[in-house]
Specification:
Length: 303
């Protein structure tokens, strides 16, 4: 068996793998898609000490770093179940079962998509999902935020301090965000809130130039000219494959303690698949390191 088996090869998993391998223990990492969400990212300007990089370039560095150690890297493998007998057993889609004394889950998350024309076409060309990441690129421009829940309203407040004007589009007749956030939102001079509207299409030639939406009550169609659309309708953790083997919260995020430990002894978790409130590359790497050190601590106490 492995000493530590990591499931997920994004920044959290890679960081966990390197921290584990540096303890001289038998380490494996299984990933459906090595690099994770970073592969889909164009410009990265908040990975501290690197002023600017691009997703695939950062992933190449992650791979180079991981290959520097004696780590079993199993790419293009999907985990479909986890259980604990004498060892922790991870079942792969191809039928293989990997055994390990400790495991770290770092299967990340994915943004819920709108599924309207233009969304895929203009991804990274005006369609964005992360205000912390891409907000500064829209300085002095008009943008829309789709979604009036907590994350949408937080994004709108954040963006209002950077961009020229923000329009919030909410499908339901009321915003779902906390009262205190709504109050702050409505106090801002450069924000417009549109409720009971359905986003229909993101338009443009090479990049986003506007959005078309309908007023659901009046059944009228409108068009707004703007440079960016932030989609904020939810982040879905990739944790369904775990069923109820480890505790998850109402969003499906894995609940971990200070050491990255889950509710199942010997199983740790890190990154966007956990209940960490902020989902960023640097944070995923930090929690990956925490989980690996937590797993090592567990091993030396349980051998
Ligand atoms: P992920 O990156 O999601 O990696 C999850 C890994 O698990 C992948 O390898 C995946 O294939 C694998 N996996 C999933 N399910 C299974 C399974 N069942 N079996 C095996 N493997 C599985 N953050 C920043 O800090 N700065 C930015 O500029 C930035 N820009 C972004 C732009 C975009 C378009 C997106 C989508 C995100 C951006 N983020 C940015 C967020 C950042 O990418 C994430 O916070 C980070 O990648 C999370 O790392 P992670 O390792 O937890 O998960």
């Amino acid at each position: 068996p492995y000493d530590v088996l990591i499931i997920g090869g994004g920044p959290a998993g890679v960081s966990a793998a390197i921290y584990a391998a540096r303890k001289g223990i038998r380490t494996g990492i299984v990933a459906e898609r090595f690099g994770g969400q970073v592969m889909d990212t164009l410009g990265i300007e908040n990975f501290i000490s690197v002023k600017h990089t691009e997703g695939p370039k950062l992933v190449a560095s992650l791979e180079e770093h991981v290959r520097d150690y004696d780590i079993d890297v199993m790419k293009s493998q999907n985990a479909k179940g986890l259980q604990k007998n004498q060892f922790i057993e991870v079942e792969l889609e191809n039928g293989a079962i990997l055994k390990s004394k400790a495991a770290i889950i770092s299967t990340g998350a994915r943004w819920r998509k709108l599924g309207i024309p233009g969304e895929d076409k203009f991804k990274n060309k005006g369609v964005a999902y992360c205000p912390h990441c891409d907000g500064p690129m829209f300085q002095g421009k008009d943008v829309a935020v789709i979604g009036g829940g907590n994350s949408g309203v937080e994004a709108a407040i954040d963006l209002a301090g950077i961009v020229k004007h923000v329009t919030v589009l909410e499908f339901m007749p009321e915003l779902k965000a906390d009262e205190v956030l709504q109050k702050r939102l409505y106090s801002l001079p450069n924000v417009t809130v549109l409720k009971n509207v359905e986003s229909k299409e993101i338009t443009g030639a090479d990049k986003v130039e506007g959005i078309t939406y309908t007023d659901r009550e009046r059944k009228e169609t409108h068009h707004l000219e703007l440079a960016g659309v932030f989609v904020q309708i939810g982040l879905i953790p990739n944790t369904d494959w775990l069923a109820d083997t480890v505790e998850r919260n109402s969003f499906g995020e894995i609940v971990v303690d200070r050491h990255g430990a889950t509710s199942l002894a010997g199983v740790f978790a890190a990154g966007d698949c956990t209940h960490s409130p902020y989902k960023q590359i640097i944070i995923s790497m930090g929690t990956g390191a925490t989980a690996a050190l937590g797993a090592f601590d567990y091993l030396i106490r349980n051998e």
